[in-house]
Amino acid sequence: MVKTDLLNGLPDEDGDRVLALGKRILLASGAELFHLGDEAECIYVIAQGRLRLTLPMQVRGQDQNVLVEERVPGQTVGWSALIPPYRFTLTAMAPLETEVIALPREALRKHFAAYPEAGYAVSLNLASVIGERLQLFQAMWVREVQRMMELRNA
Known about the structure:
The protein is of the alpha+beta class. It has a single domain, classed as Sandwich (Jelly Rolls), CATH 2.60.120.10. It has helices spanning about 10-20, 105-115, 115-154, and strands spanning about 25, 30-35, 40-50, 50-60, 60-70, 75, 90-95, 100-105. Helix 2 (about 105-115) crosses helix 3.
């Protein structure tokens, strides 16, 4: 079984059944996996390589993709596929050749209906992945507020 944060706590046999629902996708260096606002049909587990998660912003009048975080093998991206309104909240790009396992939302729903213990474990793990993202954004926001306050008081 591929070791992944999405399947923590599941016996290998159960994790293998979940991963068998997916298909492997090879991304060339520079390829985009998904784009902010796109409909999210799949959640992805990184098998090899890396993904950069970015947020498009205007910086000094220019459009830029600001790096939010990089994800590595074993980590999950695209959790928006399991959380309404099923739209990606960032853009994911492979800075080098990367392989992911794409797990379709509908296949996961059916599987978790048949194996509720697996669904429960994945839900807890997904909550943890989302919690990490919220902490990251909170830290970024606090740094920006501190910077603005320092500029205001200078």
